[in-house]
Amino acid sequence: MKKNLLVVDDDEDIRALLEAYLTGKGFNVIAAGSGKEGLEKYQADFDGLVITDLDMPEMDGIEFLKRLKEIDPDCIGIILTGKGCAETCITSLRDGLAYDYLLKPLENMDLLLTACQRAWEKKDLEFHNRDLMDSLKKSNEDLQLASKVFENAVEGIIVTDRDAVIQKVNPSFTSITGYGVGEAVGKKTSILKSDRHDKAFFEDMWKALLSSGQWQGRIWNRRKNGEAFLIRLTITSVKDASGRTTHYSCIFYDITENKKEQDHIKSLAYHDALTGLPNRLLFNDRLAHAIESGRRAIRRSFPCFFWIWTISRKSMTALAIKSGTCCLPRRHCACPAACGRKIRFQGAEEMNSLFCLRAMARGAII
Questions:
Q1: CA 15, CA 53: separation in Å to the nearest integer?
Q2: Is the per-residue pLDDT at 198 higher than 90?
Q3: Least C-beta-crowded within 10 Å: which of 64, 123, 215, 346?
Q4: Using an 8 Å Cβ cutoff, are 103 and 76 in contact?
Q5: ω before 105 within 30° of 0 (cis)?
Q6: Which residues, at least 6 apart from 232, have a Cβ–Cβ distance to it below 8 Å?
Q7: Which pLDDT score, from 0 to 100, does residue 304 have?
C-alpha cells in the first residue's frame, strides 16, 4: 500500500521541513496551507495519514479533523500543538478525532517518524481487518446461498465422509427414498443398495472416483418401503487444501418413470400392436446383430432360422385373419425355444422363401 501523508500547517517553513523529512523516509507527502485546502486535497481520492497543526486561522485543527471524519470515518490524524494546548489534544484523542499528538517545537524528528509509522501500522491493520471482514461477509452470504440451494434442490443430495458414511441429506433425498434425516445420517449409503448390481460394478465405480474424483451413471437403488428405483447419479470427491479427499457429494434424481416410458415406447416400436409379437423392425435389428456376430466368428454359413407367419389380406377372409392373428401368440407360447423367433410382418407383407433369408445372410457374411 502506498504511504500517503497529508501535512496541513499554515506555517510555510514547518510545512517545508516536514515534507522534506518525511519524503526522505519513504512517505508520499502532500502539503496544504489551511484546513480548507487540506479538505480539498483529501477529497481528491486521498488515502493515507494526516498531520495537522492545532492552531490555524479560519479553521483550527480540531474542526478540520471533525470535517475530515465526516468525509472518511477511518482517517487517522496526528496533531501538532504547543505546550499550552496539550489538554485539548488529549480530549481529541479520547473522542477518536486523532490518533496521536506531538508538541512543538519538534526538536526530535525521530518522535515524528515513530508516530507516523505507528499510525500507518494501525491504518494497515484496519485495512486488512476490513478486507477480512468483507471476505467473511461474502463467505457467509455464499454459505447462506449454498444452504438455500441445498435445501430447495429438486435433486436428492447426500454428503458422506470418505468412508461413505452419510453426514447430511436434503429434503429431496427424503421425498425420493423415504428415509428421514435421522434415519440416514450416520448410516452407510449401502442402506439404499438394491442388489441389482454385482461387485464388479461398485469396484469400477470406486476406481473411477479414486482416479478422476468423479463418477456418473445410472444405478438401481431401493427405497425404504423396499421398492427398487432407478436414478441418475453424480458423485464428486471433495478435497481439502492439501488435495486429500475428505467428503463425497452425491447428487441424484429419480428416472424410474422415464425408464418405464422409454421401455414402453421401445416395445411399441418393436412389437406388433395387434398380436404382441416382434415386428419387422425388431426382425431387422436381430438379423443385423446375427450377421455381425457371424462376421466376428468368421463363419461362412448362417445358422439363423425364423418362422415367418404371414397373413395376407388378399387371400384370407376377415374371419380367417382374425382367427390366424389370435392363433399366432398361442402358437408362439407353445413353441419350444429351439424353434427360434416368430416375426409378424404387418398387413400383406410376406417373405416367400426361407432360403432367401439364408442367402441374404450368406452374401452379407461372404
A1: 10
A2: yes
A3: 346
A4: no
A5: yes
A6: 216, 217, 218, 252, 253, 255
A7: 46
Backbone angles phi, psi at 103, to 5 degrees: -95, 140
pLDDT over 80 at 353, yes or no = no
Same domain assignment for residues 345 and 251: no
> Which residue, among 250, 202, 194, 268, has the nearest Cα to 227 in the 3D structure?
194
Residue in the structure block whose three cell numbers are 496521536: 100
Q: What is the largest CA-CA distance in the chain?
A: 130
The set of residues, in sequence order, having a beta carbon less than 8 Å from that of 172 and lying 6+ positions away, is 153, 154, 155, 156, 157
If asked whether residues 247 and 349 sit together in one domain, one would say no
Residue with the three cell numbers 477511518: 74
Question: What is the average pLDDT across 315-339?
Answer: 49
Q: Which one-letter amino acid corresponds to residue 67?
A: R
**Shared-domain flag, residues 105 and 49:** yes
Length of the chain: 366
Mean pLDDT of 353-362: 46
CATH code at position 124: 3.40.50.2300
* β-strand pairing of 100-103 with 76-81: parallel
Q: Which three cell numbers stand for residue 16?
A: 517545508
State pTM to two decimals: 0.52
- Same domain for 242 and 287, yes or no, is no
